[in-house]
Amino acid sequence: METVVNQLIQVQHGDEKFGHLPNRVNQLERIRYNQKTITNPHVVEEFDKASYSLFSEILKSLDSLEAGQTWKSELNLAHHQLTRYRELYNALAIQYNQFVDQHKKVLKELDDSASLQRKPVFKQSVVQ
């Protein structure tokens, strides 16, 4: 999203109505979930709402630009991929957790210093 925001500002030659968008992108970076907060649905939901709000605002801004349709297609694809990436992450994390649970003793014997902590999974879906 940051790339599209920067391109949008460049194309609009610093139009003031887009000047706040980099701050919104920075806000997303600050509230982004991590491995510790991924299981907290409130943290994920807050990020999703802020992300979707920015996404919607950018899409509306692109309506007036010639190149806007291309950027809109890219943004829509990225937004829809987020759901798919979360599903894939969850599937992999669940498989990893099952493997660790089943083989923890052997894995510890092979490498006593190995961190065999379970991976967190998303409990909240993407805002649509």
Descriptive overview:
The protein has 128 residues and is mainly α. It has one domain (2-110). The chain is built from 4 helices and no strands. Helix 2 packs antiparallel against helix 3 (41-62) and helix 3 (41-62) packs antiparallel against helix 4. It is elongated and about 60 Å long.
- Biggest pleated sheet: none
Low-confidence stretches: none
Output the structural class: mainly alpha
Give helix % range.
55-70%
> Number of DSSP strands?
0
How many structural domains in the coordinates?
A: 1
Can I get a quick summary?
With 128 residues, this protein is mainly α.
Structural topology:
Blueprint lengths: L1 H10 L9 H11 L9 H22 L5 H43 L18
Helix pairs in contact: 2-3, 3-4
Keywords for this structure?
128 residues, mainly alpha, 4 helices, elongated
